Amino acid sequence: MISGAVDLAHGILIRPVTLDDADALARAYRRNRDHLGPWDPDRPAAFYTPEGQAERVRVQLADGRAGRSAHWVLASGAEIVGHAALSNIVLGPARSGNLGYWIDAEHVGRGLASAATRHVCAAADTQLGLHRVEAGTMLHNTASQRVLRKCGFEEYGLAPSLLYLHGAWRDHRLFQKILNDRPL
Length: 184
What we know:
By secondary structure, the chain is of the alpha+beta class. The protein has a domain at about 5-135: Gcn5-related N-acetyltransferase (GNAT) (Aminopeptidase). It is about 30% helix and about 35% strand. It has 5 helices and 8 strands; from the N terminus they run E-E-H-H-H-E-E-E-H-E-H-E-E. The chain has helices at about 20-30, 35, 50-65, 110-125, 140-150, and strands at about 5-10, 10-15, 70-75, 80-90, 95-105, 130-140, 155-165, 170-180. Strands 1-2-3-4-5-6-8-7 form an 8-stranded mixed sheet, with helices on both faces. The longest helix is centred in the N-terminal third of the chain and has 16 residues, at about 50-65. The protein is globular. This is N-acetyltransferase domain-containing protein. Keywords: Acyltransferase, Transferase. One of its GO terms (molecular function) is protein-N-terminal-alanine acetyltransferase activity. InterPro entries: Acyl_CoA_acyltransferase, GNAT_dom, N-acetyltransferase.
C-alpha cells in the first residue's frame, strides 16, 4: 500500500489515486488530449468520460491491492495535473516495476515530472520493496529521456517494435534505475 499526499512543488500534491478522482481525471485527459496524443495509444471516446475513468481507476485500485501496480495523481486543488504509475510490478527475485507518467500541458517545465519520478522511485524502494524501476520512451521523446537521466536512470538498450501506437509498432529506448542492493 502506498502512503498519502506529498507536496511536490508549487502547491502541487502527489497522492494515491482514488475513485473520487474520476471526474477530474476525465477533465484532465480531455484538456490534454492533443498534448498526450503523440505518446499515448489511441483511446476510445469512453476513456474521456467520468464513467470511463471510474472504471479505469477501479482496475488500477484492484491491481494495486493485488500488488501488480501503484498509481498516483498530481493534484492542484480539485484539478488533476498529472499521473504517475508503477505497472507490471514483479516480486520474487526480480523485484521490479515499470514507471510511467504524464504532466498537464499547462504545467510542463516546472520540474513536476522529475519530482514525481523521484517520489515514485522512493515509494518503490521504501514502501514496495522493489530493487529496480524501468522506463521506456519513444525514440523522439527527448523530454522524458532528459527527466529519466536527471533522476538517475541509465539507458540500457533499445526495444524494437515495443508498443503498437498510432497504427505502427514503435521502437523505444529503455532506461533503468537500481534502487538498492538489499538481499531478498
